[in-house]
Design brief:
Blueprint lengths: L5 E10 L2 E11 L4 E5 L6 H9 L5 E7 L2 E2 L5 H7 L1 E4 L11 H13 L11 H7 L1 H5 L10 H13 L5 E4 L8 H16 L3 E5 L3 H7 L2 E6 L2 E7 L5 H8 L2
Parallel strand pairs: 3-8, 3-9, 6-7, 7-8
Antiparallel strand pairs: 1-2, 1-4, 4-5, 9-10
Helix pairs in contact: 3-6
Length: 239
């Protein structure tokens, strides 16, 4: 039996005395897509930050390709193959689109030769033509959809094996969301493993292989997406 690429086992996280994530476990095979859903405050962002090493008050295990990652600093986790597209995008607003990408590309190019890299700025621009057209504009001058494209492109330049996307479509128009998911489908077709937070439950079910529904930090529903109805998810979503 093939081992999952990413395994999260009994992960728990605290803010002081408040437990935000309560014993969350799931597995994701290479090339698969897992949707993480739940209402605001369910613990989704804290879960992602705990996986990525951005939150320290954590117990449990995060295992990537057989290697335990919990306790490693965030930059080492990125180097091992997990990249985060954060909620709110977190691009550098004072830099141009191209400078944002160049910072990421230069940071990670030291680890691989040009020939060994799968993702470059040119490939990001091919994936998101809107970014190529806006390459010289400042991060504060582009639309929310372009900022999300930029955040995804920046994460890809770290050459991840697993891409975590927190709130893919939040605040974006349906037309932009459609473009983003077309790009994610193309990324996934090349073998990328995706774990994503999405508020649109129907879209989550349609795009993912498996889902995890959180409620107050705990897993209320998990399993194959095709085996779950919207009503099943809604009941778990709202507890």
């Amino acid at each position: 039996m093939t081992e999952p690429l990413l395994r999260v086992d009994g992960l728990a996280a605290w803010y002081g005395q408040l437990q935000a994530v309560r014993g969350v476990s799931f597995e994701v095979d290479a090339g698969a897509a897992l949707a993480v859903i739940g209402e605001n405050g369910a613990g989704k962002t804290t879960l992602f930050h705990s996986i990525c090493g951005l939150h320290d008050a954590v117990t449990g295990e995060v295992v990537l390709a057989g290697e335990r990652l919990r306790g490693l600093p965030a930059h080492d986790i990125v180097r091992r193959g997990i990249a985060l597209v954060p909620e709110g995008r977190r691009i550098f607003p004072s830099l141009t689109v191209d400078e944002n990408l160049r910072v990421a590309e230069d940071q990670h190019a030291r680890r691989k030769s040009a020939r060994a890299r799968r993702w470059t700025r040119d490939r990001v621009y091919d994936l998101f033509p809107d970014l190529r057209a806006a390459a010289r504009r400042g991060g504060h001058q582009i639309s929310g959809g372009q900022q999300q494209m930029l955040a995804i492109g920046r994460a890809l330049l770290s050459e991840p094996r697993v891409l975590l996307l927190d709130e893919v479509s939040l605040g974006l128009s349906p037309a932009v969301v459609k473009l983003l998911y077309q790009a994610l489908a193309a990324i996934r077709a090349e073998g990328m493993t995706l774990v994503f937070v999405e508020q649109d439950v129907a879209r989550s079910l349609a795009f993912s292989d498996h889902l995890v529904c959180l409620h107050k930090g705990s897993v209320r529903l998990a399993g194959a997406s095709r085996a779950r109805s919207l009503d099943d998810v809604r009941r778990a979503y709202f507890g």
